[in-house]
Design goal:
By secondary structure, the protein is mostly beta strands. The chain has 1 helix and 13 strands. The longest helix is centred in the N-terminal third of the chain and has 11 residues.
C-alpha cells in the first residue's frame, strides 16, 4: 500500500498530460491567427478580380471572379504572387463557358504564377454570357509563410467575332497567419 499511494499521486498529477502541452508566454494570443486575403476594391464595368474564401476543410482558397463580361468566347489570365510566401497546390476552372464538349480549359502552375484560361470549341458555338459575378477559377494554396501581393496579370477576354473586351482587374494581399 505504501508504494501504491505515491504511484496514485503521480498518476493523478499527470492525468490528461500528453507531454506536448506548452504554456503560452504571458500576453501571447493562445489561438494562432488564420491566414487571410484582403482584396482590393472591386472595379466597375467588365472586370476580373480575386477574392479569398475558406472551404469546408477550413483552408483558404483564392478565387478568380468575372462579371459584366457579356458574351465571352474565351478568357485567360495569370495570377501572380511571391513564390517565397506560398505555393499554389492545385488550380481548377469552373465550367463557365460550357461542358468539356463545348469548351477547352487550361491550367498551368509555376512558382509565382498560375496561368488560367478557357475558350469555346469553335466560333459557331458563339459566346457564353458572364454577366453576374461568377467564379471562373479556384486556386488551392498551401499555408502562407509570408505576406504577398496577389495580382491578375495579362488578362484577355474575347468575343466569338474576335473582338477584345476591355476589362478592369483587382487583386489583393494574402497575409500569413497560424494554423488554418
Amino acid at each position: 500500500m505504501r508504494t501504491a499511494f505515491p504511484l496514485l499521486v503521480l498518476l493523478s498529477l499527470t492525468a490528461g498530460c500528453d507531454g506536448d502541452e506548452t504554456s503560452p508566454e504571458p500576453g501571447a494570443d493562445p489561438k494562432p491567427k488564420k491566414a487571410s486575403f484582403e482584396r482590393e476594391a472591386e472595379p466597375n464595368g467588365p472586370r476580373l478580380w480575386l477574392d479569398g474564401a475558406r472551404g469546408a476543410d477550413g483552408r483558404l482558397r483564392i478565387q478568380v471572379y468575372g462579371a459584366e463580361l457579356g458574351q465571352v468566347f474565351g478568357w485567360a489570365a495569370h495570377v501572380r504572387y511571391d513564390a517565397g510566401a506560398f505555393a499554389v497546390e492545385t488550380g481548377a476552372l469552373t465550367e463557365t463557358l460550357g461542358q468539356t464538349t463545348e469548351a477547352a480549359r487550361f491550367v498551368s502552375l509555376a512558382e509565382g504564377d498560375a496561368a488560367l484560361g478557357e475558350a469555346r470549341r469553335g466560333a459557331a458555338l458563339g459566346g457564353a454570357a458572364i454577366d453576374e459575378p461568377t467564379v471562373l477559377a479556384v486556386l488551392e494554396i498551401g499555408e502562407p509563410e509570408a505576406t504577398s501581393d496577389v495580382a491578375l496579370d495579362r488578362v484577355m477576354v474575347r468575343r466569338a467575332d474576335g473582338s477584345w473586351v476591355g476589362v478592369a482587374t483587382a487583386g489583393g494581399v494574402l497575409t500569413e497567419g497560424g494554423a488554418l
